[in-house]
Amino acid sequence: MNLKKGIVFLPCENNIMKRNLLAILSILTVTILASCSGAYNANPSTSGANYSANPLNPPKFDWASQGTAPLSCDINGSHFVASDSLTTFAFNSTNGNVILGGNSGGTYIELIMQVAYSGNQYSMGYHNFTYCSAVYDSYGNPNPVYNYFSYLGNVGGFDVTENDSARISGMFYFQGINVYGTVINISNGYFNIAK
C-alpha cells in the first residue's frame, strides 16, 4: 500500500481495473443524481385517492349523499360497496361499536368506535386503538400483506351522524398500512346500518 498525504491508495497494476472502477462509480453517481428529481410533493392533491391521506387538508365529511348503504367507500380510488348479507353490527367485549362489511370478492372493511355519540367526530391515526379501522383484502387469509390498519397510518376520522337503539350511520376515511409499509387510502366512507 502506498501512503500519500494520509490517503490510502491500493496498488493497481492493471489500468483496465482502474477504468472499470471509475466507470462503475460514475454510473452510480449519475443514477443517484437522476433519481433525485425533486418531484416530491409534501402537500398531496385535495382530490382523488390521496384526498383521504392529506393531514394538511382533511376532508369536511360532506359526502353522505354519495354513500351506499349498508357500507361503501373508495379504496385507492376504486369504489367498494358491502353487501347486506355480509355486513353486521356488534358490540365488542368493552361495549364498543364494531361494524364489519364485506363483499363477495372477500374484501372487508372493519370499523371500531369505542364511543360513538351522534353528532360527534372522532380521529383515527397512529396507535389509536379506540377509534380504528381495517381493510382485509382477502378476509380470513392469515397473510398480513392483505391486512391494512388505520392504527399504523397517520390520518383518519369518523363522523357519526346517527347512533340510537335502531341504527348507526355516518362517514369515515383513513390511511391503512400493512405490516410491510404498503399504504392504501380509504376515502368517501359511508355507513348506515340497522342494529
Explain how this protein is built:
There is one protein chain. By secondary structure, the protein is mainly beta. The chain folds into two domains: 28 residues; 146 residues, no CATH class. 11% of the residues lie in helices and 39% in strands. The chain has one helix and 13 strands; from the N terminus they run E-E-H-E-E-E-E-E-E-E-E-E-E-E. The strands form three sheets. Strands 4-3-13-12-11-8 form a six-stranded antiparallel sheet, with no helix packed on it. The radius of gyration is 25 Å and the shape is elongated. The termini are far apart. About 9% of the residues have low confidence.
Our Rg estimate from Cα atoms comes to 25 Å
Distance between the termini: 80 Å
Give the biggest beta sheet.
Answer: 6 strands, antiparallel
Q: Specify the helix fraction band.
A: 10-25%
Keywords, separated by commas or semicolons:
195 residues; mainly beta; 5-stranded antiparallel β-sheet; 1 helix; 11% helix
Q: Any chance you could write out the topology, listing elements then pairs?
A:
Blueprint: E1 2-4, E2 7-9, H1 15-35, E3 71-75, E4 78-81, E5 87-91, E6 97-102, E7 108-113, E8 120-124, E9 131-136, E10 147-149, E11 156-163, E12 167-177, E13 183-194
Antiparallel strand pairs: 1-2, 3-4, 3-13, 5-6, 6-7, 7-9, 8-11, 9-10, 11-12, 12-13
Q: Brief overview, please?
A:
It is built from one helix and 13 strands. With 195 residues, the protein is mainly beta.
